[in-house]
Amino acid sequence: MAKAKTNAAGAPRKNVPKSEMVLDGKGRVRLRKASPKAWTKEKELHFLQALSDTCNVKWAAQEAGVSPQRAYERRKSHAAFRSGWIEAIGFAYGRLELILLNRALNGTERIITRRDGSEERMVDYSNQVALTLLKMHRETAPTGEAQRPPCPVHVRAIQVPAGLEVSWVRRSRHGWAWLDDIDAPLGESREFYRVALEGAAGQIEVETDASFLVFDTAQLATVGTGDSTLSIRQIGDLATSRAATMTINLS
User: Fold this and answer.
1) What is the rounded CA–CA span in Å between residue 173 and residue 149?
2) Does 6 fall in a domain?
3) pTM of the model
4) For residue 59, how far is the Cα from the chain centroid?
5) Could you tell me if 16 and 135 lie in one domain?
6) Pairing between β-strand 244-250 and β-strand 226-234 as defined by DSSP bridges
7) Is residue 178 part of a domain?
8) Domain annotation covers residue 163
């Protein structure tokens, strides 16, 4: 029965390269013993796993039984290994970020020993960690409020014989200056609104692409008379604005 190869201490040797079939100078197939320094699939797996666990190339190379220099050389010459390297680093950074996020949100517990020998547990919150995370995601993860269009303003509602005339003025995430002396920049791929009217008898909701609409008498009948709440939201590409509201007494 064949015995497993062991090192000087008698323990099994890891990542022992197998012999490989090669062609000699005359085109004949020969069995050549692979160099102990040669890369193997097992070495690659050990290296990438250690790299994803530690984000440390030197440590990962030691775990795989190769030198850091040979690891860098292989990354440069082997596309698949380079791809695995990038994925491992990304995974390691993701784990590190979760650790930092936990510290920023939940703090780090430490024990303070008083002069009388008693102990007190305190939780420290690192502002520097929180600022670092905010800086990392400032461009790639805007807040929900930054994605919302500002709510419409200057809402007007007038009850006329034909129904209820409603109008408003939109605003924009890209600023409100009238750069062309006509209107503020839209800031979205289209102009679209959701308008709701809720009263004692019921509620109606319509969507429109203009900053003006008329609820006819049939629609008002479903809402009922008395105080009703009018709400207008702009529908943006990324989110919906908060509502501009007005209380109206319908007769």
Assistant:
1) 5
2) no
3) 0.43
4) 29
5) yes
6) antiparallel
7) yes
8) yes
